[in-house]
Structure formats: structure tokens, C-alpha cells
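Hi R.,

As promised, here are both runs. First protein below:
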Amino acid sequence: MDLLGILVGKFVILGCKLTRKNGTSLPGKLALKVDADIIKNIVKDVKNEKIVVTGTNGKTTTSGLIAEILKSSGKKVVHNREGANMLSGIATVLIKNSDIFGNISCDTGVFEVDEANMPLVLNDINPKVVVVTNFFRDQLDRYGELDTTIKKVKESLSKLPKDSMLLLNADEPFTASLGDDLNLNVFYYGILDKLNYGYSLSPAFEQKYCPVCGGKYVYRDVFYGQLGDYYCPKCGKSRPKLDFGALDIKLTEDGISFKLKYKDKLINVKSHLTGAYNVYNVMASVAANVLLGISFSNIQTGLNNYTPIAGRLQKTYLKGKKTIINLIKNPIGFDSTLNMLREINKPLNLLIAINDNYADGRDVSWLWDVDIENFVSHTKINHVVTSGLRAEDMALRLKYAGIDQKKIKIIKPIDEALDYIPTITNEELIAVLPNYTSLHEVNNYLKSRGVKQ
């Protein structure tokens, strides 16, 4: 091992602490310039299985849940909890958890990996379990079309050892198709129930056609976005048989519960996370730990102990007013968040903050792919504040979705918008919906004012 790379990383981590910077990526970025194999060299000393979680939406929550369950079972876990999921972020968390010689004392590793980075890091990590949550359109100006990303992910998976386990979301057609003709131990999870929330295919729906014959998919049921129970009437290809299936699903303001069918067992699962999309995140985390042999009691303890990272269904207060904060970064994620708010069934005040910095993607036309009209028709919205660099674009989108212009106020500085919205709030729940770099501004605001996160 090139110890210089470790020392460079450690030095930069110290510098970030002294200057009160996050330092989730920079130490690893610089260390990789010195030692391109630093991830492989450190992670090989992790004693037991490594788990990788990838996909467009849900990977931060799913990997966090998996890590918390493993900790609750007594494992010492290395995990990139902050969500820095590219090469530099993974290198940083490994350097932080190793000594100056690059030795790491951990039982297992859980790594969230950006889907476009899978070919770069999968061989270095050599995971026992890979979880794929879903594939949606996300920042096309940065990542390109989905077909390209999915092809690269499948190519990287095909190079794993044959005893590796691949856990796929069967309800999302792109993800399920990864298991076709792949010589690994493939397991599928999905929903066996009828959710009955009246969802239809999202306007951002992607996988319209069967990859085998080109026939158009027909859906027996839609759970959210393009996730559901689908089949091709032309050739018969359908959603794979579920190894893990959720049924008797309950969604409330306080959390979710369901029964998970696995073989001849029914596992009772509860989580304080909310929203139909979190059924998938919780289900994937439970399934991954079942495959690793973790007991059901430890699994439930881990679910109870899990706390979301800032901005992922974060519950807090702004000037004494109940507030929920959730990241929105693409059409399906935005749709899912709106569906979750709709399920709460309370009057709302919204603050939507949209930036178009490089990390967000410059193209904000995706806002028009979100089914805001359906949300507006089912929800009592008293006030909306739009903020961020593209506040005007968001306000225009809301106007065309049917929200009365008198209810919409544009306040571009995000800190001023956060100061303002509690002053117009009475009985409403405040929902703060920032995109990626806007979330950093929201978190900085909360820290500067001592708001509990």
C-alpha cells in the first residue's frame, strides 16, 4: 500500500475539521491521485461481507437502514452514511476509518455507490451482496440516457464472483431486467399487495416496452412511478417471481408497517419512515439482512434505531412550526414526495427550493414531468414559497398545475424563504422540498440558527 495516499487523505481530513468543512469527498479525491488503488487496499481488510447499494432513488436510505441493522446485531460497520457515493466519497470514508497504515478494523462494509460509478468501484470492493433499488431519469445533461447507465451496471455485475448475491427490485422493469441471463444468485423483492391509493403511471414513466420482444408493457397495478405488477401480452415476459414480498401494507403519518413474505415465513416489519416508496427501502434492507443471516429481532431493532440523514424525511421545527424536509432531485423522486405528503392528509404550506448548479443538473425542464396536477387536486395547499436560483421556473410550473397565483410567493434567497414561511403558518404542516445544492443551504440555515436536525 502507498502510505503517502493515506497520509494525504488524513491530512486533508484534519484540515477540513479545522476549517469546519464537511470533507466528505475532497480527502479521498486527493488521496486517489496519489494511490489509485487506495479503496481496494483498505477495503480488503474488512473482515466479513461487503454490501453495495445502488440505484437512482432510495440508495442513501436503504444503505443506512442496512448499516443500522448490522450495527444492532453487534457488527462494527464502515459506511458512507453522508451519501458521498462516488469514488472520492468512498475513499474518504475508508481513510477516516483506517489508521495511518491503512489498516481498518471493521466486521463489514456497507457502501452506497452512484450508479454511474459502479463499473469503477465494484471490482475494488468485491461485495457479497449488491442491492439495486430502481432506475429513473436523473440529470440527463450529466449522466445521459438510462440505457447507457444500465448497460454499464450490468457489465460490472457480470464480473462478480458467481457466489455473489444480487437483490433486485422486481417492480421496476429496468432493475428487474438486470437479473436476466446473469450468472449470480439473484433474488427479487416487491409488493404483493394492492396499495389502493389511486396512483397511475407517472408522466416520467420510462420502461414502456418489453426488452425481449418490444411489446408494450401492461400494468395490473401501479405502486408509484413505473413500479408495479407488469407483463408483456406479446411474449409473456412479466415481473419476476418475488423472493421477498410485502403485503398488508399500512401507511400513516407516523410510519409504515407490513408483513414480508419470505419462503414459508411472514415477517412483521415496522418503521417510523413514511411514504409508499419507503416500503421498498425498508423491504430491501430487511431482505439484504435476511440473506446475510441476521436475526429478525436484530432487524427490527435496527429499523427502530435508524435516524434519517439531514434532508431525507427529516422532521424538525421552524420557529415552533412542525416541518418535514425531503430532498427532491428528479421527476419520480418529486412525485413520490408529493404522494407521501398527500397520504398525510393535512393542510400544507410548501417551500420548494430549486437550484441549477452543476451538481443539480443545469436542465430544470424535468419539473414539467412531475404530476403536480394530481397532487394539487387531492391536497389542501394554503401557501407556497418558491426559492433558489430557479424560483421563477418553479412558480410558473405551479401556476400551470392549478395553484392560485395569490398563494405563490417567490423569495429567491433560501434563508429568507425559511425565515418567512413559519410566519404565515398556523395549523399547516410545513414541507420544505429542496433539490441537491439547495439542501446544503437548508442544512446550513438550520445549523446557523441552532435548529434541531
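And here is the second one, sequence first, then its C-alpha cells:
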Amino acid sequence: MINLKCINHDTEYEINNIIHLFEPYIEGDYELESVYEKNLATAKLIKEDNVIFEKQSPIDEADTELKAKKNMKLMLKETVYEVLYQLTGKAMPWGMLTGIRPTKIVHDYQKQGINEATLREKFDKVYHISQDKVDLMIEVAKAEEEILSKNKQDEISIYIGIPFCPTRCVYCSFTAYSLEAKKNHVETYLDALCKEISFIAEAQKGKPIRSLYIGGGTPTSLNEAQLERLLNHIQNVFELEQIEEYTIEAGRPDTITREKLEIMKRMNVGRISINPQSMNQKTLDAIGRHHTVEEIKEVFKIARELGHDNINMDIILGLPGEEVEDVAHTLEELKKLNPENITVHTMAIKRASRLKEELRKSDEMVYQLAQAKKIEAMLDLSQQACRSMGLNPYYMYRQKNMLGNFENVGYAKPGYECIYNVEIMEESESIIAAGAGAITKMVYQNGERIDRIANVKSLEDYITRIDEMIERKREGFMKYR
């Protein structure tokens, strides 16, 4: 256990994130002093009143107060990382990076005119990122730039959330409700959602929509009539003639029917997700997904027959009970299906998930250590398999409490990259979000300012307070007309 003491600065939150990376590898109790003094950052690791490791680094000068504060925080974190590395001998694959958007750092440095060689040196010497992760980060940043460079003035993207699932997966922490328990709320939810969508369409009228993404939950938890009602409403109120991308995260195969796929195709949905998470039946049963591997294959086949030619499939590495050979089997099965996109997620033990509840703290540390040793091999295998299918990495993000401190990566065939995924990660244009738990992000000043407009998470509150949610948006939109 590490007892942190910050002296002359308020970077406690960021430093605790660094400490959290090393917790599974630390035995015993230590004091850690992080000190800012005279443009120096110092970290001292103390055991029984004796300093056992110490690191001191100068802080680069800056021409603005904001840059000076960033430099200070960077070096305070770097010195803490160094002493914890000395204690444990454990180098983190992403070094001291704990944020969810690693590629934003690449874009930020490039805007400052820093070339790739200098960038690589900085990622190695200051951030302590491993060479293979630096390579991945730069490759993804270049792919993102191809997409972001085509953003237009006043362009927006739209997100619409459907917070229902047939069952709740063991690892899930999203705003999602059991369809069985909340089936009587679906129609009233759609009433409220369509009202919010209508307001958004009117308030943002005239602005080009680059991408529209319907996620969840599981959007195809809606029955055929409900899905058609929603898509008809979207088509009636939004100007979609020039839209580049229209996605429905169909998700679980036990919610997808031929008629729903026909409705999506008829309504010009161009991209869908059919997400297996694993192609091993024992795993699907263990994580609470009540469908079979054969159902995944059958739904994919029907989608192809109906002309869906841009299909994403999600998998998760580190699912309970899975070994490297199980992931290899999943990848072989996906290779036979040949989707245009594969998104590779690394398991994260999320605070609101059932898995988190089932693991006591001591068990969680043991679990993380055991799983982390496998994840790297699983990630390497996934990257090789995706590249062999002609899919290249184009977007990436990270989460807290990811096993092994790794990453999630989206792979796509050239020309099939998901625009919405890149926009939401890089926060380069406003994304207007509707639905329970949805968060609108208004982007101003070329990304220098982001205002968030949040909807309530509770399903019942969203339905009864929909006028309040609309008023929140009205005020947010008016602020920077």
C-alpha cells in the first residue's frame, strides 16, 4: 500500500492514477512524497522512515501559465513513475499514460510543430511508453488524421442511445436495463426519445451531419415495429441526404431478426455491428449472453444476404475463463466471416459491473495479475490476425482498470473506418446525444473548449423529465450561437 503526500502542488488525483497502475505489484506499506519546489519535481519512496528510492527532474520552462502547469504535472508524474518502477521492476506498456485518448497527445504535439523523431524520443524518455505502443499510437494517429482532416465548418455528429438489453453481461457498466424488467417502459421511452430527437433536428437545422450512431444498450432490443418507428422518425426530422455514415450497433445476435435487418437496410443504415465478444460457447454462457455461436454465424449470413456490406464485430480479451487458445479460436471464426471491422477490447473491471461486485479487493488483485500475463499475448495475436485479414488499426482508446494496463483498438479494411468512433475519441466536432445517460459534447475554438450537456441516467427520470433534458440542450446550444 502506498500512502501519498503531495507537497506544494495539487496533482494528487493524477499521481494516484500512476500509483494505481503499480498496486498489483506492490507488497508492503510505503510512504511516497511528491514535491514541487524551485522548478524541480521530486519523488521520494520511504520505508520505515528511510528513503529507499528517489527521483528528481527539472521542469521545462513555458511561455504561458497553462503550459507551465502542464509541464509541472508531467514531471511530477514522471518522477513518481520512476520510483515505483525502481520498486517493482515492472515497466508498464503505456508507461505513465493513464488517459483514455493517447492519440490526442500525438495530435497536440504535431500542432506544436514537433516532428515524429522528437515525438518518439519524448514518448520513450519522458512517458516511458514501450516501442510497440508508440508505433501503434502513431499509426492510429495518422489514420485518424485522414478522417479528421475532412471535417467541415459547423458539422456535427449525432448519437442516439437505446438503454435496453435482453440480459446484463457480467462485465457491463453502461446505462442499460433488462428488457424483461423494463418492457413496459419501452414505448414511453421512445415517446420521450423522439421528442428530444425532434428538438435536436430543429435546433441544429442547416448544420451538416457527418455521422449518426445508434448505440446502447442494444438497439435491436426494440421489436420490429419499435425499431421501424424510431428509424422512420429519424428519417423524417433529419436531413440525411449528405450523411457519410449511419451506424446501428445491433450488437447481440439474440436480438437480431431478418425483418430488423431488412428495416435497417431499407432505411439506408450503412454500417451495423454484430458483436460476439467471443466465439466460444462456454464463455458466452459464463458472461451472461444467452445466445449461441451458431446464432452469431446465422445472423451474419442473413445480413450479408440482405446486402449489409459494412459489418463490425467486437471481441473482448481477458474474459473470465478464456486462455490464449480460446482467443485464437475466436479469431479463426471471425476470419471465416470476413467482417469489414473488428474492434478488439481489453477487459476492464468496471466499478458498476457485476464482475467487480463478485471480486473482493484481494481477489481482484490476484485476478488482474493472472490475466495481465495473458493479455499481451492475446493482443499480439489479435493484431496479427486482423492484419492478415487486411484490417488496419484506425482508432484506439483506453479505460481505467484495464487488465494489464493495455488498450482497445479498432481495425478496419481501407475505406471502412468508423467516422463516429474517431470523432468521439478525438473530440474534434460537436456530438449531439439523445437518450437516457447520453452526454452531448459541444466543441468550440478548434477543440480548445468542450462543453458537456448531460441527460439523466435513470430511465424513469429521463421519461418524466424529458422537457428538462430538452431545456438543458436549449440553454447549451444558445450559449455559443
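A quick note on the second one: The first strand starts at residue 2 and ends at 7. Let me know what you think.

Best,
J.
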